[in-house]
Amino acid sequence: MNVFITGCESGIGQNLTKRILKDGHSVFACHFKDISEEETRLFKKKYQDKIHFNQLDVTQRGEVDRAVLDALEAMKTIDVLINVAGISYFSSPLTTTDLEWKNTFDVNVNGYFYLTRSLLPVLINSPSAQIINMSSIWGTRGNKDMYAYSVSKYAVQGMTDGLREYCKPLGIKVTSLILDKVDTSFRELMEGHINISNEQKKKMLAASDVADTVSYLLKTSRNALASSIVLDAALWR
């Protein structure tokens, strides 16, 4: 399969890219921040024409449309969209600034929407079409300290639910992957505001846990739809 992924420069997106390539699929890996020439060279050396990198700001509709065209030129078809790119601020309903609110929704909600809308006409033609949206437990229960992020993930949940109903008759599977605490740079953001013990860090989800779950989803039969999966950090206390 040919897989289009965002947020591939680090954390979950980077682990997904590696796992999906390892599984034998091709990846169009979109990243906002720069990826070093050395890292690109190593990927190309190992995976050759199965990996394609593209710098993308998901908040810009024009860039999104161009990225989809570039992906089609590189891979000819696209079977799977995985929306990963996201941002968060540690702020309350009172302290969240206008800019923080706007940035959060531009990336976490509008970015998902722009890519989905741009890729739907392509995915319709794939017999293996899937859309996987990364969501959060904070999109199922409120969080007063990461307020804008929490609200944006509620929006992702609603977006994904509505999209799933639209896509069922089209043969496109849509899944919301609802994540608990994952040990990525997101954890580093949290540590700037709350204490996380070394023992707690050991009990967080790893980005590889998310990659394993997506790998499973890509192997499910056409008749098996995982509408949503909650991936808990089960031992966290």
UniProtKB/TrEMBL annotation:
Family annotation (Gene3D superfamilies): NAD(P)-binding Rossmann-like Domain
Annotated CDD domains: SDR_c
Record field: transmembrane: none
Molecular functions per Gene Ontology: oxidoreductase activity
Superkingdom field: Bacteria
Keywords, sorted A to Z: Oxidoreductase
Family (UniProt): Belongs to the short-chain dehydrogenases/reductases (SDR) family.
PANTHER family in the record: SHORT CHAIN DEHYDROGENASE, SHORT-CHAIN DEHYDROGENASE_REDUCTASE FAMILY PROTEIN
Descriptive protein name: 3-oxoacyl-ACP reductase
Natural source organism: Chania multitudinisentens RB-25
